[in-house]
Amino acid sequence: xxxxxxxxxxxxxxxxxxxxxxxxxxxxxxxxxxxxxxxxxxxxxxxxxxxxxxxxxxxxxxxxxxxxxxxxxxxxxxxxxxxxxxxxxxxxxxx
Length: 95
Prior knowledge:
Number of domains: 1
């Protein structure tokens, strides 16, 4: 594991989501598309619906879907491929 690894927890408990305050985080929606992305801040997100692949530069694709709690590290450069329309709550963390 290194500093640019994507961390995922599948189906975290409702209690954990409540403690994190996920319901109060902003919403992000995206229809199917492919685009490059670079995280300048760490992002934590919880996927409400949809399915997508994230491929880190020089890495292997990782698939995410509804019920995943994901941490994308600051500095990660990747390509997003939204396979099914996505809706997620997200929080940007200061480095």
